[in-house]
Design goal:
By secondary structure, the protein is an alpha+beta fold. The chain has two domains: 43 residues; 109 residues, Tetrahydropterin Synthase, Chain A. Helix content is 51%, strand content 17%. Strands 1, 2, 3 and 4 form a four-stranded antiparallel β-sheet that branches. Helix 5 runs antiparallel to helix 7. It is elongated, with a radius of gyration of 33 Å.
Length: 168
């Protein structure tokens, strides 16, 4: 029998793959499809992105209570156009402060005229070119945080957020 197979191969005849290989390929594709579907379900339903922290509602409530965010009223200022004599540019910006403890919120309310003065003077000293870059915006955020923290006594502003930022 082995001699017959050798004669067929020597004679240039086609080698036919066993029928079992087709079944194995179909089973392999099915297994891959199941693994892919399971992975997609795992990532999309409740397990989040890698590195994402899952919080319970009580933990989230505690975080919000202990680190409140205070929205300030919008600021509209003339930007520093320098000596170029070009048309005046205006900046409209809304700012929010993330605080390190709830008592700072009351102090911010009490010191609001002082804080608004600090922010207005700082914004008016900036040029449109500086604020047109990401680096300029980040530097402005840091300056606002630093200057506001210099007048606070009960706690600190940990982050400054721009919730609206328009130069016109």
């Amino acid at each position: 029998m082995a001699d017959e197979e050798e004669k067929e191969n020597e004679g240039g005849g086609e080698v036919k793959p066993p029928r079992n290989i087709k079944k194995l390929i179909l089973i392999g594709l099915g297994v891959l499809a199941l693994l892919g579907g399971g992975t997609a379900f795992y990532l999309l339903h409740g397990h989040g992105k890698p590195g994402e922290v899952q919080m319970t509602p009580k933990e989230m409530e505690k975080l919000i209570k202990n680190n409140p965010i205070v929205d300030l009223k919008p600021f509209v200022v003339n930007l520093n156009s320098g000596q170029s004599g070009e048309n005046s540019k205006y900046l409209k910006v809304k700012v929010a402060f993330k605080l390190n403890n709830p008592s700072v919120g009351k102090e911010i309310d009490y010191r609001m005229p002082e804080i608004q003065n600090i922010v207005l003077i700082l914004l008016g000293s900036e040029s449109p070119e500086e604020l047109g870059t990401t680096g300029g915006k980040l530097a402005l955020r840091n300056q606002i945080r630093h200057r506001v923290n210099s007048v606070l006594t009960l706690g600190r502003v940990t982050s400054v957020y721009f919730t609206e930022f328009v130069i016109q």
